[in-house]
């Protein structure tokens, strides 16, 4: 029986910043499950090793590289290593992120800058630097991890919301500007998934009830449910998609005035 090949990532190399935990790791594994060889990157050596081992267990190739996305030098060292070992970068995923819940009157400049440096500047650095590689090789796909806070506010998360709103607009700008180089840039806006970055927040009874009341599916997402959107955007099936942001949110953004 013939089957559809458009979602296959066979023969492609993917670089995933923030690919060793939470949504980023799930995406890295999903790309590997669809045939890509994947390099998961984060700051922690042990997490990188474990993620790379899981990718290899799927029969794919991987490298063990660490980086701080707020440092261009650190990102460049990863790019150089990947090009040296693999020869190209077909897919880039920017999933590194951080947050802090705090009343805005109490938010320090240091925390505000740290959150923007990781979430926005880190994404921009990787887009620009890997984008230059993709321009030179004549093709590429970039997936930025946005957020529901790219579109709506989150209580006591002003810096995070501001950073993710900016990432969404950056995605749209680059997606339309760089398509002339055959570089597609798209985003995924996850709904509420239980991850290390937000577990302590969404477990609060009042906050949990508030989130679920606005989510038609009445549950949080499971990590496996982020994979499909990433595989689609990275694949040839999305060859006519750029500058778009796909919400994977159980209907949160669509609900509006609830029943």
Protein architecture, described:
- The protein has 259 residues and is α/β, with parallel strands linked by helices.
- It has a single domain, classed as Rossmann fold.
- It is built from nine helices and seven strands; from the N terminus they run E-H-E-H-E-H-E-H-E-H-E-H-H-H-E-H.
- It has helices at residues 22-33, 45-57, 72-86, 109-137, 158-177, 199-202, 205-213, 227-234, 252-255, and strands spanning 13-17, 37-42, 65-66, 91-94, 140-145, 183-190, 245-248.
- The chain has a seven-stranded parallel β-sheet, sandwiched between helices.
- It is globular.
Describe the structure in brief.
Helix content is 44%, strand content 14%. The protein is α/β, with parallel strands linked by helices and 259 residues long.
Keywords:
259 residues, alpha/beta, 9 helices, 7 strands
- The fraction of residues in strands falls at 5-15%
The major β-sheet equals:
7 strands, parallel
Q: Strand arrangement, largest sheet?
A: 3-2-1-4-5-6-7
Radius of gyration: 18 Å
Shape: globular
Distance from first to last alpha carbon: 44 Å
List the helices and strands and how they pair.
Blueprint: E1 13-17, H1 22-33, E2 37-42, H2 45-57, E3 65-66, H3 72-86, E4 91-94, H4 109-137, E5 140-145, H5 158-177, E6 183-190, H6 199-202, H7 205-213, H8 227-234, E7 245-248, H9 252-255
């Amino acid at each position: 029986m013939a089957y559809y090949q458009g979602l296959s990532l066979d023969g492609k190399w993917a670089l995933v910043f923030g690919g060793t935990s939470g949504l980023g790791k799930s995406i890295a594994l999903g790309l590997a499950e669809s045939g890509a060889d994947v390099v998961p990157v984060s700051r922690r050596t042990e997490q990188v090793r474990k993620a790379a081992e899981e990718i290899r267990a799927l029969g794919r190739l991987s490298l063990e590289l660490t980086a701080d996305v707020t440092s261009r030098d650190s990102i460049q060292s990863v790019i150089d290593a990947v090009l040296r070992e693999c020869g190209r970068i077909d897919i880039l995923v920017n999933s590194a992120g951080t947050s802090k819940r705090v009343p805005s009157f109490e938010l320090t400049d240091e925390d505000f800058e740290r959150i923007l440096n990781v979430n926005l500047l880190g994404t921009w650095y990787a887009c620009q630097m890997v984008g230059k590689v993709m321009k030179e090789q004549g093709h590429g796909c970039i997936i930025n991890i946005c957020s529901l806070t790219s579109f709506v506010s989150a209580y006591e998360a002003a810096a995070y919301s501001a950073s993710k709103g900016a990432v969404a607009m950056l995605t749209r700008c680059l997606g339309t500007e760089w398509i002339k180089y055959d570089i597609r840039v798209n985003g995924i806006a996850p709904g509420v998934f239980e991850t290390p970055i937000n577990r302590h927040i969404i477990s609060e009874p009042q906050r949990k009830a508030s989130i679920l009341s606005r989510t038609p599916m009445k549950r949080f997402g499971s990590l496996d449910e982020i994979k499909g959107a990433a595989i689609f955007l990275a694949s040839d099936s999305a060859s006519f998609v750029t500058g778009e942001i796909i919400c994977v949110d159980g209907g949160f953004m669509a609900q509006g005035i609830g029943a």
